[in-house]
Amino acid sequence: MKSNEIFLHPSERLDDLLTHDLQIIQSDEVFSFSMDAVLLARFAGMPKRGKILDICTGNGVIPILLTTRTKASIDAVEIQPRLAEMARRSVQLNELDEQIKIYEGDVRNFAEQIGYGKYDAITVNPPYMPLNGSDIKLSIHQATARHELNGTLEDIIKACMHLVRTGGKVSMVHKPQRIGEIITLMRKYRLEPKRIRMVHPRIDKEANMVLIEALRDGKPDVRMLPPLIVYNEEGQYCEEIMNIYYGEHNLEEENK
């Protein structure tokens, strides 16, 4: 499908996803994806077939990227109507309608709508910040993307427990400052952490992201993976980041 067949609002643009000729509709007024979404899409363990769910999908970047790794059916849920509509148009743009379905809704009651234990794998890039007052200075779209306006971290993890099948995987990207809370809540809701990887902007800097994958009803046995370094000493992307963005490497060896 040609890009001029998809309607764009005045504030919107088409961005290249740098892989498999994929494109995505973005708008700085509403939401633009960042590196955390790309890293989660490459980190998460994926079944070759089955059913996958992306929670807090935003403009749909993660499900679109996941189609390069799996033939599974992918559902995605987003609470903001404008973002959900953008995601649908991006799916159409890339001719992925048969693989991806975008839902507008609240993840806290999504299992009641779609069914319990339905998914083999779930990805989630949730709002990172609890409510603290700073959210009122942002636009509603920015505040919803960054702050827990529509559900706490516990709400989201609880929803994942309801939606993933026994033995299914839940993969999340978040801030390292909340790793203790994440592990505690995952175990509370029968999601056993299995793989954890810290992401550092530079080799001598503290981690600013954490990737974590849990198994529904799994046994305690967690692997701490080597750190992922974003920039080298020259301020350029390290080789692994370059491979994630531009190459075919998708961390398959980590998913074994």
From TrEMBL:
Database matches in InterPro entries: SAM-dependent_MTases_sf, Small_mtfrase_dom, tRNA_Adenine-N(6)_MTase
Ranges of residues in domain Methyltransferase small: 37-133
Protein's UniProt name: tRNA1(Val) (Adenine(37)-N6)-methyltransferase
